[in-house]
Amino acid sequence: MSLTSAKVTQMLQEIQQGNKDRINDLLPVVYQELRRLASGYLRREREGHTLQATEIVNEVYLKMIARDDLNFNNRSHFFAIAANGMRQLLIDYARRHNAAKRGGGAQKIELDEGAVLSKEQSTLILALDEALQRLAVLDERQARVVELRYFSGLNVEETAEALGVSPATVKREWRSAKAWLYRELKSG
User: Fold this and answer.
1) What is the pLDDT of residues 91-143, one digit of tens each?
2) Residue 176's domain spans which residues?
3) Domain count along the chain
């Protein structure tokens, strides 16, 4: 465990123990990593869209710390939850975009900073989310591996730590999940 990783874990434990002042100290320590995760998500989006990594980080971080039940086991767990929040944020934007394309009740929906996803990207994000939900019913751990590896950009070791399994298990589950998702998305 690196010094920063140990520091983040210690800060998270202090927050859980009631030291809410540490929340303000946490963001500068985790900001660059959260921004890297958000940038990873945005690399998969169409070029030129207006949603920015900083917006994603700020919105997800604020939602995470606003919760009364802050309960993060360690740094990996914190980033896994952040990755899931980023994924949900993009899915919500994609749903809004698709609803607007269908008329959306003829009411214009304003998004933060006018976030725009291409129709193809919106459709792909929603299809992947639906396929992941089906995979989670069949094999929840495989779905979590995909979420952590693909959406959050965690490496094999970080994913293994977050899930409490070996790196070999993560590699095996990753291969299997990718094959399953490929078949699902291709048939859909």
Assistant:
1) 787 777 666 555 444 333 333 333 344 555 667 777 888 898 899 999 999 99
2) 3-187
3) 1
